[in-house]
Amino acid sequence: MQFTKAKQAYSVILGMVISLVGVGLWQRFNLPPVREILDRPPVVIPALPSTPPPPASIPGVQRGALRVGNRTEHPIRIVLLSGKRNRTNWSGVEPLNWDFAPSEGSTEGLLLSLPTGQVKVAQGDIIFAFATDGSRIYWGPNVVGQTTSPFWDKDRREWSMVLQP
């Protein structure tokens, strides 16, 4: 009985030796690809663009609907601070907000509304927009009629704001 166990042990040991030799030869002749670490080009920070002058007041335009489009890949919240026209005293004014899914209203934008009707904004109202996914992206503050966004769409006779990445 001892002889049969020894025969089995020899074949197991011989199989292990052949396997190890095969793996060693395979590793020797099948070298991993050499990865070259390339020098990264230096980071070039472009100069800040010159800020366009704030738009002149649009004569005769007091109030209009607000259309917003989200052309980003982020969920966005729009906050509108409207109501009192006295900039020194904004206390007691309740901000309004709307949430947009990624790319929601990206082609023509969506008119903002409340259950009581369509939202009308006027020159001096303040609009903020920020991503709600934690990416820390924001747009604003935008002052209606004083900053480049929102802009007056004279064909539709409404204010439009397009959020882009």
What does this entry look like structurally?
The chain is α+β, with helices and mostly antiparallel strands and 165 residues long. The protein is 17% helix and 30% strand. Strands 1, 4, 7, 10 and 11 form a five-stranded mixed beta sheet that branches. A four-stranded antiparallel beta sheet has the order 3-2-8-9, with no helix packed on it. The mean pLDDT is 79.
Can you give me a brief rundown of this structure?
The chain is α+β, with helices and mostly antiparallel strands and 165 residues long. The protein contains 1 helix and 11 strands; from the N terminus they run αβββββββββββ. It has one helix spanning 2-29, and strands at 63-70, 76-81, 96-100, 110-111, 113-114, 117-118, 120-122, 126-131, 138-143, 151-153, 158-163.
What are the salient characteristics of this protein?
single chain, alpha+beta, five-stranded mixed sheet, four-stranded antiparallel sheet, 17% helix
Determine Rg (CA atoms, Å).
33 Å
Oligomeric organization of the protein chains: single chain
What count of helical segments does DSSP give? 1
User: Mean of residue pLDDT?
Assistant: 79
Q: Could you list the spans in which at least 5 consecutive residues all have pLDDT below 50? A: none
The beta-strand count equals 11
Biggest sheet statistics: 5 strands, mixed
Q: What's the shape?
A: elongated
